[in-house]
Amino acid sequence: MRHERSRIMAAPWAMLLLIALVLGPDPASGASRQETLTVGLYSDFVSLDPHAGISSDWTMTRGNLYEPLVDLDERIQLKPVLATSWRISPDSRTYTFTLRRGARFSDGTPFDAQAMKLSVERLLTLKKGPFLYVRMVRSMETPDSHTIVFHLHRPHPVFLRGLRFVFAVSPKAVKEHEVRGDLAQGWLSQHSAGTGPYKVLEWKRGISMTWVKNEHYWGGWAGPRFTTIHLRMIYDPATQRLMLEKGDLDFAQNLTIDDVPGLKRHPQVTVYENIGAGGSFIYMNTAAGPTKDPLIRRALSHAWNHKAYEAARRGVAPRGNGPTPEIVLGKAYNLDELYPYDLGKARALLAQAGYPTGGFTLRFLTEKGDEQKRVQFEVLQGELRKLNIRLELIEETWPAMNRRLADGARMRDPATAVHLIAVWVPANLFHPWEFLYFRFQSDATLDKGGRNIGYYSNPRVDRLMEEALAAIDPKKEQQLWIQANEMILQEAPMLYLDRIVDIAAARKEIKGYVYLQSRSTSKAASPAHAIA
Q1: What secondary structure does DSSP assign to 47-92, as a single string?
Q2: What is the per-residue pLDDT across 183-224, written as a single tens digit (0 to 9) for each?
Q3: Do 302 and 170 fall into the same domain?
Q4: 3-class secondary structure, 23
Q5: Residue 531 falls within a domain, yes or no?
Q6: Does 160 lie in the same domain as 118?
Q7: For the whole model, what pTM was predicted?
């Protein structure tokens, strides 16, 4: 039965951030080479506009359709992409980039400093998507066609790394497809105009999307490579597994724990398993309903039974350790000591909040087709039932879920608000800013380019984070982030579940797979090239 199957892939878009996956029969055999890679997804895209929003589907466009100035490699070190070099002023307020020559957008327009400047200006105007990564920009200069200079209002510790989410968009496409001053948002939501190795050929919403090679790609297309990527939305895990085994899919993403042993035994399938730096969390709505009360949120934290969850996941549930991964901030706290599973303590907190016998309903929102989140719901539902709290499941497609969470009025209205939101949280910059500021700062809501989907707000936490960003002494900065992290933990705006276990399954003949922790807890292979 579907509800008994527990999904282990965390991010629906994980493996295709950069495609170097290739297939090649023995050249000596004379067999024709496969040029199309077919991938099974379990959810549709929200938008293809790289400046419109940040969500799991958004990550799939980077490195495939669009490119940034810089990125992170498999060692989590900065590497050049559309910039070939850069320098930073002594006061860390001015960044000068030398740009790559010969790069072109998929419509043939040359990439240059003015195109990059216009892309950042578009992002600053829209105030969506990765806007928070460039909000600190005071002005820009383009002294020549292959140099761009950013002047910041103040030093910012993640500006350089944050530029990996600031993608260049063809100025010609924006100008030609702009409608009533929308900066081509309508057109770019369904089409592509980047410098990446691929461009969109066709999108059948809810069914499939096809990418073909960008003939103008600066990396070139010499040698064997996949020239077409066919993405199929297949919502049932069993169907994806069968299609992979039959060879109708080259890559499957919507898999379950029960699928793994059988796939490992299959002679034509390779399974890849990695533990990512990100985590699987449940945001709690701090703006409406019972979860507005921190006492209720703490009670729910004590009601989380991780051992039961781990058992339901066949032991594949490495314990989460709070909002910030240990690799980023160190283990400055012990989550099991702070919120151990304890229904007695949960009842006491409910009584303090005025609910000694429970008696209320919470709405739990998750993405349709995400089996791992369904297991989380079932485990939590079973524990809350013991507290006389009813948990109602709401499953929506990823686009619908994003629209709901971005609607502040709807999320703040007790009549329409959801109270628990199950999501995965990636590790993109490996800096406290992305886990704390980006997700808990009062103004970092989804409609403003952040991921504060629980509408958490605490002026004291905001001040600590602003002080951390302004700190010159690294030790002082670290201490301020730790203080903010601890204060957030005390207010329990999230349930911290498990670290993401990334699973990819591919046909044996697909080669070139490389795991990158810096790819939103996802799988990727290095450039968009194929090797035999």
Answers
A1: ---TTT--STTHHHHBTTTB-BSEEE-TTS-EEESSEEEEEE-TTS
A2: 999 999 999 999 999 999 999 998 999 999 999 999 998 877
A3: no
A4: strand
A5: no
A6: yes
A7: 0.80
